DNA sequence: TATTGTTATACTCTATAACTATA
DNA sequence: TATAGTTATAGAGTATAACAATA
């Protein structure tokens, strides 16, 4: 079997293509794909702490510091010290962050449709449900301190 | 929609899990997952040049230098100057490289089956055929000088 | 002039360890 | 003692530019 037919190779290359296209667009917003994910998560769960976002998105907390630093620096989010536990921050999206999210979501749809344009609706549905099934099983099986 | 339900997130996380597990095993062989791919490709196409491997696996040629340097250093492959075109090398797998490949392939199967164990045979087949379909369409659409 | 391989450089993500301030 | 956030550091992949040797 060729390495190009392995699941790992195919997953990696399709993912790379999708991320590369999305990243190219996101340059206009001065953020990367993982940073867009962080931004979207903060909008959905306002006042989440950095650790909470880290655990939800499976991003290391040291990487999260860099993402949050950057998003705050370009005024897409704010850190507000949590008065009930002064070790942590509550993260919130700014007005400017909301408008960036709207643009980003629109483009994410475009990018996904473009990369997967060769698939019909059934195949797209299969792909997503299969990936979610696998990812759920990975999460349930997780017991080490990766994050 | 949550970012955790996007194709990009799911592809990235499932790929990360598969690569992390495989990489953990490959530490015994002192190579990474991309290096295993390079090794396997050289076995299948003996005397391929670095550029040829780069183009087949969509790995940048400057990254390829580092991979080939490493694989040669630990005696899994050899560089032999091509007498017909002295700019390039012919790459071949050593005896030791062949035995590493056997172990690696065995583990790759185990890893894939483990990560995808939640899927039935039909679903595994769907996943692979869908990923190949998408990857083929990406390759055909490629026209820039990424590699 | 073009191509193969190489080097230098820079950026992003990942991961570990150790630190601080707070609990 | 434990947790949230931070800093320092290192490793891996990716990408661009520029160079030498060769075609």
From TrEMBL, chains A, B:
UniProt entry keywords in alphabetical sequence: DNA-binding
Pfam families for this protein: MarR
Residue span(s) of domain HTH marR-type: 4-136
Xref: SMART domains: HTH_MARR (SM00347)
Keyword DNA-binding: yes
The keyword Transmembrane helix belongs to this UniProt entry's keyword annotation: no
Protein name listed in UniProt: MarR family transcriptional regulator
């Amino acid at each position: 079997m060729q390495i190009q037919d392995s699941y790992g190779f195919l997953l990696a290359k399709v993912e790379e293509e999708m991320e590369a296209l999305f990243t190219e667009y996101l340059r206009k917003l001065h953020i990367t794909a993982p940073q867009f994910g962080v931004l979207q998560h903060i909008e959905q769960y306002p006042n989440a702490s950095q650790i909470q976002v880290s655990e939800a998105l499976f991003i290391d907390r040291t990487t999260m510091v860099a993402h949050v630093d950057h998003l705050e620096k370009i005024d897409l989010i704010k850190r507000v010290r949590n008065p009930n536990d002064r070790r942590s921050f509550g993260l919130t999206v700014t007005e400017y962050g909301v408008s960036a999210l709207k643009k980003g979501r629109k483009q994410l749809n475009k990018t996904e449709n473009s990369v997967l344009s060769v698939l019909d609706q059934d195949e797209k549905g299969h792909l997503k449900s299969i990936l979610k099934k696998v990812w759920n099983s990975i999460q349930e099986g997780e017991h080490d301190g990766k994050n």
